[in-house]
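=== RUN LOG ===
request id: a7f3
mode: sequence -> structure
chains: 1
length: 413
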Amino acid sequence: MTQPIQSSSTRGKPLDEERGGFVPDTEIMSEHGAVEITDLEPGNRIYALDPLTGIAKLKPVTHISSRQYHGRVYDISARRIALRVAPGHPILYETQSKCPPRFRPANQLSEYEENILINDWETVPRKAPDEIDVTDFLDEFEVCVSYDCHGHTFRAALPDGCEPIGRNQWVGYRFDAATFKRYQAAIEELGTGVWIRDGTSHWRMPYRFQLEDFVQFIGWYVTEGSVTWKKNRDTAEIQIAQKKAENREKIGALLDRMGLEHDRQEKSFKFGSKLYGRLMEGLGGTDCRDKHLPDFVWELPTEHQQLLLQTLLDGDGNERQTYYTTSDKLARDVCRLCTELGIKPRHAWRERSWGTPIWEIYISRTQDQLFYSSQVSELLSSGPVFRLTVRDYPAVLAGRNGRFQWIGANAVS
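=== RESULT ===
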């Protein structure tokens, strides 16, 4: 059953849905970052807020419609807010009292000069394992297992069907990827040391890491990392560059903790591995315009997402908490990461006379307010307006020109 969002100003009476709606250039924060409302379809998941609990979750769009409209629209514009909606659209606000957040139609905002916007929310708490196993992200690899008993004893202790593909005195028994994943617990219990590699001519590498270390490794790779595939050697070179000395110390200590043997140069770190070349390109992208965050980030606990965001800022941010990237996908991912952390992101696409255009993402927590006399104006508009119905929760994170605020959807199903 679909119900219109109700406003405290109408004393419990449903708002007239025909009067509300977003203009076409409105962006909605979704699981893919900011998406124009014209590109949304039923089933797409967007961030929605329960104002009573302060919990934000991804919720599906259940209906979206557009209609031609000629008349007044309300333009709400300030440094951190940019919305344009048809009269009657539910605007979410708070008061200085301890009353729960309320909705007021856009055409009734003049009742109060000052409106406090929604500034605090959180996502559902998540649990995560202490370690990351990178074989969960790889399809092709070889496992090397050392042991401290006789080889026949080791073989006899393996489960039925767990057959190694070979053995030698330097690397121990070798297993293919499928066998290892099927019998991983038994192999790890029997071996005194377990490593992965790309094949017989490649170095053995660690594959299990503390979660917080791997999160930082991903952050440094996404901001300052690259993979170079060697033409004259059967390997790939993973490099992490960093200009700041204090950050180089962090990266060096991180690689040491992870057991990733590397060469330290004046302003960068390098190590060779085809396997890790594939891994990092798959998780974080191939070049600066292709960088992105891996999917597992969205299942991380808040403290690890915060650690990732701080690492990103240490790599490609500044002291004003502005993050820079040339990657469209990474810009969307960082905006989504901010939303997960209870931060309303702002973003802008900047043309530069001396180089490639770049995304700027402004990351700060502020107590946003709406002042009617200076930030709300009425305009005449002719064109489509879009109405949005969302599952369960009545507010969405929406905006124009890269500025987002929580505002009412048109209906809840």
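=== NOTES ===
The first strand starts at residue 3 and ends at 4.
The chain has nine helices and 27 strands.
=== END ===
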